[in-house]
Amino acid sequence: MDSFVLYSLLSAVFLFFVFVILRKRHRVRLPPGPKPWPIIGNLPHMGPMPHQGLAAMAKVYGPLMHLRLGFVDVVVAASASVAAQFLKVHDSNFSSRPPNAGAKYVAYNYQDLVFAPYGPRWRLLRKISSVHLFSGKALDDFKHVRQEEIRVLVRALVNEKTKVNLGQLLNVCTVNALGRVMMGKRVFGDGRGGADPQADEFKSMVVELMQLAGVFNIGDFIPALEWLDLQGVQGKMKKLHQRFDRFLSGILEEHKIKAGEGDRKVKHTDLLSTLISLEDADGEGGKLTDTEIKALLLNMFTAGTDTSSSTVEWAMAELIRHPTIMARVRSELDSVVGQDRLVADLDLSNLTYFQAVIKETFRLHPSTPLSLPRMASDSCEINGYHIPKGATLLVDVWAIARDPNEWNEPLEFRPERFLPGGEKPNADVRGNDFEVIPFGAGRRICAGMSLGLRMVQLLTATLVHAFDWDLADGLLPEKLNMEEAFGLTLQRAAPLMVHPKPRLSQQAY
Length: 509
Hints:
Blueprint (H helix, E strand, L loop, with lengths): L1 H24 L24 H12 L2 E6 L2 E6 L2 H10 L11 H5 L14 H13 L3 H6 L1 H16 L5 E2 H18 L13 H18 L3 H4 L11 H29 L9 H7 L12 H14 L2 H16 L1 H15 L14 H13 L9 E2 L4 E3 L2 E3 L4 E4 L1 H5 L47 H18 E5 L25 E6 L7
Parallel strand pairs: 2-7
Antiparallel strand pairs: 1-2, 3-9, 4-7, 5-6, 8-9
Helix pairs in contact: 7-8, 7-18, 8-14, 9-11, 11-13, 14-16, 14-18, 15-16
């Protein structure tokens, strides 16, 4: 065993020096960046919070940087103008994903939508998701589901007499709303909206996935060392995949059994029934398989739930910390909605100041602070610098949203910046304005953006409108912990513990 380890290390050293010699022979003008260490490159420079570490480096080396992580060229975009070059001007060249352990060991070996190589299969999966789950018609058809699950959450909060972990209950709500759309039933709980041990276990699985996916795995950047799994990441991913696969296989088999017992001519009423029907139908990329269906479900239940619930948790934390802003939002809600009913989807477009609050939340707390990596299909030139073929692209969404060249007082929570007369009154979070791109941009923009936006808006508006909020244990708002936790998604380091107090007329609940 020791001889194998020694051989692998010697091989890595040899390949490193070959790499350096070849690089010197073919000198090109790469973007600036910190000097890499031997073999491991700039991995030590990433720090415990990569999105923050890269933002700090960008202040020194500029918004377009080159790093070498192991043997992999990495380019970083840390300003709106540079991000636009990659995701708009050169979008087609950066539409594939680089190899990574998460896609291999968790996401069914690249058979999902998020990590699938750009091509016919990816287009098929994207089309299925866009048409059947995230289209305007689909969102309208299932708006009653979102409103019903939010009402379940509201009733649970009304009946709660002790402090609550808001993020925990939000996660149950978002998972059940998505579950009813996808499978026609709730995933967790008995419909009363309270905490559920299975839901807690599921959330822990999602958080673990995001934490593991956020690790810069040495094996991804030094292939000769992949088999050693020096950080233990791959082993943890394999075990986590088994847990997810049991969960998803159970859902799929149960649905197939129920479909077999019913009338096969009945119109499909949920996404999973539609996906199962596509196993026997040829499309642009061929038939769907059970594995691809489970991989799609994995995407939806991970990327489509925890991101929304954590964004709402950040929004509520900011509003509790800023009572003047909270009061203005609540006044607008009372004016538009009144105090005899809960907020509905149709109200959202009439809430101008509230929409600015949501945009400001997405700016300061983007659910994915460091974009999922993309890969250069061919070499190209950006801002006069050479970008090598095969280079990995990272867009630091978090750094862009806090760029002092784009935003006045960027660390302050100021919704007014998105109102008429503010600095960015027309800024859109849907990938068109690169100063704030919480869902990414270009071909690989988040497929569930429209659903995520509606869920975040409706949940946050309802919580602000329906309840007064006190922090647990007498904590003062100005003392609230706003630190971030490590991971692919932007979780709070400390959960938001609160006491909700109903403020509407009894008939509203």
